[in-house]
Amino acid sequence: MLRFHSLDGWRGVAALLVSLYHLNFFNHLHDWDFLRNSYLFVDFFFVLSGFVITHAYKDKLKNTIDFKKFISRRLSRLLPLHLFVLALFILFELLKLFIAQFGMWTSADLPFTGAYTIQSIFSNLFLIHSLGIHDHLSWNYPSWSISVEFYTYIIFAVVGLIGYKSRKLLRLQYSLLIVLSFYIIYINTDHLNDATYHYGIFRCIIGFFLGSICYRFFLLNKNKVIPYATVIEIFSIIVIYFFTAYFGKEKLSIIAPIIFTFTVYIFAFEQGLLSKLLKVKPIQNLGKWSYSIYMIHAFIILIIGRSINFFENITGHSYFNKYMIGGEETELVYFYSPYLMDFLTVIFLVILVYISSFTYKNIELRMSNFTLFK
Fold first, then answer.
1. CA distances from 306 to 108, 129, 301, 317 (A)
2. Separation of alpha carbons 137 and 198, rounded Å
């Protein structure tokens, strides 16, 4: 089966950008408008997911047996790592509880409170934690997108079964889903970052089905030679950069999936120099480990934060301070020099990539062949 190596590379880059967005270090990058709005690359994942899932399953959803196999395979892809990271968070809360028994946990962040309640464990187990049943992100907060993506898979499969024999009906269903979801997002949010635990499913539907349409359009033109492919690739990145930097916190951010769809389409042809750059081995490895990078980074950030809290208690010095970044008050970690924070950011990325390579090999790969339906 045809594999889109440049898009794999994009996946790795996007995962690192989302990780840096969540990293609360006061370094030279944190005041960068592009990085402060790089949460939008979650929508790149949605578009890319719709593209590659349609590539893999466009002719394979014909009956209920196919439906069961599809859902089972999607679960085997998403669930093992999700449950592993959830278990890490729960173990950390148990450790906090143990330490608190001896009066040694001095933080106001009490065990199993806030985002880490026992009740929300069960919603996370069934991947329903971001379908509007909570009023906050819970446990491994990036996993909100995994929650909504799984149920978007189900919608995709149902729509595929209904429209299997009629492409016109299929296009109509895709269009209605996208338009309805755009409308819901538009009237209920100020920008896309508002659409997570409440309206994230509609945000995912927009990106996923745009990606699906993108693939079907690509299929019609896959042998086409793209004139000035390198120039168009560079242009698409420039558009992404300026759109993310200037509109990431604006109402207009809701059209980000459309912009990402154009980028996915252009890079799927793999005819430009940037596509060739994305196909080099280190970036391909990042793409291979991207799901682990995305899922594990919040836990690493949590451990870093709690370790700094412990260090604060020993030294009596505060390393968490509030700063005005882009007109918003944000609590960030700062040690003596922004250059030191730059160095620590690099260390974070190295640790993140190393751990992600481990979880990819030992969890994702090992569980990838386990399905309920053969």
1. 12, 25, 9, 14
2. 9
| Rounded CA separation 337/25 (Å) | 11
With vertex at residue 357, the alpha carbon angle to CA 95 and CA 56, rounded to the nearest 5 degrees, is 115
Who's near 113: CB < 8 A, 6+ residues apart? none
Phi-psi region of 132 (alpha: psi -120 to 50; beta: other; left: phi over 0): left
Max Cα-Cα span within the chain: 69
Amino acid, res. 136: H
Structure-block tokens of residue 196: 């997570």
- Contacts of 239-242 with C-beta under 8 Å, sequence gap 24+, read 239/263, 241/34
Q: Chain-centre distance of CA 347, in angstroms?
A: 22
Tens-digit pLDDT profile for the chain (374 aa)?
A: 578 899 999 999 999 999 999 998 888 888 888 999 999 999 999 999 999 999 988 888 888 888 899 999 999 899 999 999 999 999 999 988 888 776 666 566 787 888 889 999 999 999 999 998 988 999 999 999 999 999 999 999 988 888 777 778 888 888 899 999 999 999 998 888 888 888 999 999 999 999 999 999 999 888 888 889 999 999 999 999 999 999 988 999 999 999 999 999 999 999 999 999 999 999 999 999 999 999 999 999 999 988 887 777 777 777 777 776 666 777 788 788 889 989 999 999 999 999 999 999 999 988 776 655 44
Upper half-sphere CA count for residue 75 (Cβ side, 13 Å): 14
Helical segments of 141-197, H only? 144-162, 167-188
